[in-house]
Amino acid sequence: MRLNILAALCAVASILWPVPSFSGDLHQFDKQANFKTSGDFVRGCGGPQVSTECLTDFVMTDIADSESSPKYCLPDTSAPSLAQGNAKRTAIVIRLVTWLKTRPEYSKKPGSEGLSAAMHALYPCR
Prior knowledge:
Layout: H1 2-16, H2 38-44, H3 52-64, H4 82-101, H5 111-122
């Protein structure tokens, strides 16, 4: 009974308070990004530790760029725990930063553009 009430409450809440969608517009997230330029992202997210802000910008760019063509195929980051999933995402972010360090033409562009270019270059679908 409680589960049914909770499910109904969640359904109503999802209608009344829709979650904004960034899918399909790479630049829609730029204003909320923690790192405004790709250069800022490189300076702040090079590892070996990667902050929550770095992971957030990476994930939000991935969501915003999910409708891109051609597509890219990131490694699976699912894991039994959040810490294990974040370790996988951290490895991806560090690899993206390494790629961006060799491409200064992205340093002054929005972080989303640099991250998108790196994801497309490093993780093409096969």
